Target: Dicarboxylate/amino acid:cation symporter
Amino acid sequence: MRLLDVFTNYRSSIILILALAIGAMVGIYFPELAHSVAPIGNIFINLLFMIVVPLVSLSVTSSIASMTDLKKLGIILLAVILVSAIMAIIPSLTMISLATLFNPAQGVTLTLSEPMNTGGGHMDFVKMLTTNDFVGLLSKSNILALVIMSIIAGVAIGQSGEHGRKVAAMLHSLNVVIMKIVSMIMIVAPIGLGCYFASTMANQDPELLTSFARAILLFLVTALIYFIFGSTFYAAIAGGRPAIASFWRNVFPSAATALGTSSSLASLPVNLRSAQKMGLKEEIADICLPLLVNINKGGAAMTASLKIVFIYAVLGLDFTPEVFFITLLLATLYAVIVSGVPGGAFLGEIFIVTSLGLPMEVIPMLVVIGATTDAMATVINVTHDLSATQLIEKIVGKRLTFHTDNDKDPAALS
Model:
């Protein structure tokens, strides 16, 4: 029964990994067949690119517009965003450093079917973060600028009173439709990505598969170390030895649920119970954890960082200081914004590829890394929601007074 539960929880990931593995074998041992099915893969990738702009704009704008309904509790919201950003930067720095030190590619280079133009390694941050007209926001090449404008639009909608609420309701309905389109496209994901990966691997060195195994092993070891020492570090800042002891006494039900379901949302009820057992203030935990489940994604930041370092290595590109900082920025945005978009299974890969100007051929490789590291990344995401709540309670302290119909004795909240 346990094996059946595992398959149920990881069914989509297992099917996707099997499809990519079959595609890799077809590409290596039957290259002519791989080339013949390439158009199927190209059609699927194009479908993803066609939907990515409305998906990003509607999802991010709608989400931010809803969040600003908590403006009366702005101090908590600000603390949530600040802590989430910091808890994305720290694991990203760790992953980037170790991935560049222990290069998982080990000299293996990806052969592309078409020449790649990366602009000579120079990145124009003005063009990356903004466009010179509105039409530019409708291009997948300007996905980062689209995210920034969507955030601004979401904040404006949330601050526009009754008119803003009407717009937010409309955006929510549109977002539901977009997500249905995405779900329809994803039905053929195993076939589409399998065919695309087959054509990509048709001209590659089989040693490239070994590079994937090294990258995944590196992630698992790094994630385990960060889970142990990072969690202890955050708890120490939040409350010293008592907070450390409280965290480690109560975190394992949340960690087990995250590992078993590979879902931050499914782990939320268990996390709320763990927060209660840790003695965290109910008024703070009940606000923070539902927000953190969408934007506090340190595990996702680690995954994004590894993807970028790995792809740069197999493409033979220089990982310059400039690329280092943009990787840190992208990993943070990936964690705080992109990974929280519901249903956007490949949005992160598209976000990375379009932001860095990388070839579409690397998307299946990013999917492989993402699918195989998802369970451990979810453990980091879920357990560090508790760590973040500890820190937020420390930051907020007694500066925020809650008013309810039945005011509670402050002593009872301790």
The radius of gyration is 22 Å.
